[in-house]
Every structure is written in C-alpha cells, then in structure tokens.
C-alpha cells in the first residue's frame, strides 16, 4: 500500500459493492498517513457523483479513514459546531490513483450536541438484495455500526473533544 506524505493531495473514490463508482472527491490534503490510518482535510472541494452531477462541499472538513474498521468519518466544521457524517464502508485502500473504499449505504449523522441518527437503512436493505450481500458481510456491517455508536457515546477518536481542532489547526499550517 502506498503511504502518502503529509501535505500531499489525493483523490478519494467511493464505490458500491458491485464495483461501480459512487462518488469522487477531487482532493483531500493528507495530514497524517500510516498503513492503517489516513487523516485528511479539505475545504469547498469538488465532488463528482456517478450520474455526472457535481457539487462543492460547503465547509472545511477533517476526514478520518481507517483500515481497522468498516467505517469512515467526515467532520464538518460549521458555524454552529462540528457535524459528523459517518459512512459504514469497507476499510480503505490506497493505490497510485486514489484512496478507495466501498460505501455500504448505512450512515450515521452526528450533531454538535453528540445526538445522532442512523440513516439510509432502507437503501441498505434494497442494495443488499440487489447486489446479494453475503450474510457474513451484513453481520460485519451491523457490528461496525454498533462500534461506531459506541465511539460516539464514548467520544472516542474523531469524536473526542480536541480531535477536530487539533487537525484543523494543523491543516491551516500548509500553504493552500
């Protein structure tokens, strides 16, 4: 696996279980990279959807990818506090092209007061049938959803009090 250096910019590619591209983020700046972890940042970055639509993110964000868990976390820095969008996904891989993962539809949206909502369970069920997710995969994904809920409740990892501030301050030290 390629390990990019801090300050490098890479693309992020999200796929569906059937191998089709789902979404591409034009770039994130790598803040920390190890074989099992990548912390990045972006601000108003271009996003391309599989149907050809494009849009820009609205605010700075710190991104957290791990190969030890089946989820990734986007920490969006807004005027009213930190909002988190958590994707249940395959562990990430890196190659010459991009950071890549499979998006499994289940998401958790976390608000600044740390209340949260599980999203897209209907979409998960539909895609599970459509793409024939194996039972073992579904068990892994729901177990990881519970792990992510515990992280939120325990303020672990990206949900800890100073995580976003620390990494956003670090991001600001790089030339744009």
Structure description:
The radius of gyration is 16 Å and the shape is globular. It has a 7-stranded mixed beta barrel. The model has no long low-confidence stretch (mean pLDDT 96). The chain is 22% helix and 44% strand. The longest helix has 20 residues, at 135-154. It has 3 helices and 11 strands; from the N terminus they run βββββββββββααα. The protein has a single domain (9-169), classed as FomD barrel-like fold (Beta Barrel), CATH 2.40.380. A hairpin with a 5-residue loop joins strand 1 and strand 2 (21-34). The two termini are 27 Å apart. The chain is of the alpha+beta class. It comes from Filobacillus milosensis. One of its GO terms (molecular function) is metal ion binding. InterPro entries: DUF402 (IPR007295), FomD-like_sf (IPR035930), Ntdp-like (IPR050212), SA1684 (IPR016882). Pfam families: DUF402.
What secondary-structure arrangement, pairings included, does this model have?
Layout: E1 9-15, E2 21-34, E3 37-43, E4 46-49, E5 54-56, E6 60-66, E7 71-78, E8 81-89, E9 93-94, E10 99-110, E11 116-119, H1 121-130, H2 135-154, H3 163-171
Parallel strand pairs: 1-10
Antiparallel strand pairs: 1-2, 2-3, 2-4, 3-6, 4-5, 6-7, 7-8, 8-10, 9-10, 10-11
Organism: Filobacillus milosensis
Domain DUF402: 18-156
Keywords: Hydrolase, Magnesium, Metal-binding
